[in-house]
Design brief:
single chain; 296 residues; alpha/beta; 9-stranded mixed beta sheet; 10 helices
Length: 296
């Protein structure tokens, strides 16, 4: 590990050709020199020009690597892959469909450097040009329901869209859970970091802009299925009273949260099918977890 590098910035790419160029261009405008960090791009088997776009920026980043996977391994597995290759003590995650403001990275790193007790720090992520928040500090209520706030409440997790995590705590808790594939892996990590005694912080001055619109994403199977399924799986994995939670999830929590996502969707007939599939798969996997031996 090279400690002269302050961070390893990881972008997981998948068919993100139209997003990646503005994302990388925004990194070149940051107030922290490119020589101070490495840029790791993990391509999850894209079928478009994502890799070609990334390669066009190689000369602008002195510490630059592209890793190509033959298939889509999912976001958590790709991040774990990058963590295994990282040359700095801090892993910084950034979604391919974001752009960052000038002080985005320097403010994230400053938060970690000011407070050694923090294992992870999240950015302030706004929708497009703002000002509406996409993600910030997260207080996670019972059932995996998140309250997005500006750091004035309890911080249980931060969004994997734009966050920094120290590599040592990340590895000590086992990294991100690849079984989740996408969505909810940041909440799961937050549970496990806090259970291991680590703290999570938030930097309001570290700002990223996210291009995805939640209403549009709720009209895709990928979002609807994994968001609904993983909310249940994350809770079953991390709650002490797993069976009690699962009863509450069947009777109330899943129907309420699924209805909220369904109302956002622009393809409601298909959304019903996706949510049913998510319900069935979450129950099957939850029952498997309940049968697993408990480790102390």
């Amino acid at each position: 590990m090279s400690h002269h590098l302050r961070a390893s910035v990881v972008i997981v790419g998948y068919n993100g050709e139209r997003f990646l160029r503005p994302c990388l261009e925004s990194l070149t405008r940051m107030d922290i020199p490119a020589a101070a960090y490495e840029l790791l791009i993990v391509d999850n088997g894209s079928g478009d020009g994502t890799v070609a776009v990334a390669e066009n920026f190689r000369s602008q980043f002195p510490n630059f690597r592209v890793m190509r996977n033959e298939r889509n391994m999912g976001f958590p597995a790709a991040v774990n892959q990058a963590a295994g290759l990282a040359s700095s003590p801090v892993l910084v995650l950034l979604n391919q469909d974001t752009t960052v403001e000038r002080r985005w990275l320097s403010e994230l790193l400053a938060s970690l450097e000011r407070d050694p007790s923090l294992a992870a720090v999240g950015s302030r992520v706004v929708n497009g040009g703002g000002p509406a928040l996409y993600a910030a500090a997260l207080e996670v209520l019972y059932g995996g329901i998140c309250v997005v706030h500006e750091g004035d409440r309890r911080i249980d997790a931060v969004s994997g869209c734009a966050m920094a995590v120290r590599l040592d705590p990340l590895k000590r808790v086992g990294g991100f859970d690849p079984a989740l594939f996408m969505y909810g892996e940041d909440l799961d990590l937050g549970y496990r970091l806090r259970a291991a005694g680590f703290r999570i912080g938030y930097s309001r001055e570290s700002v990223a802009h996210h291009e995805a619109v939640r209403r549009q994403r709720a009209s895709t199977r990928v979002y609807m299925f994994y968001m609904a399924r993983n909310r249940t799986l994350v809770c079953v994995r991390n709650y002490r009273w797993k069976r009690l939670y699962l009863i509450a999830d069947v009777l109330a929590l899943f129907p309420l949260t699924a209805t909220a996502e369904w109302l956002r969707s622009q393809r409601r007939r298909l959304a019903v099918r996706w949510l049913v599939e998510a319900r069935m798969d979450s129950l099957r996997r939850s029952l498997q977890m309940l049968r697993e031996p408990t480790t102390v």
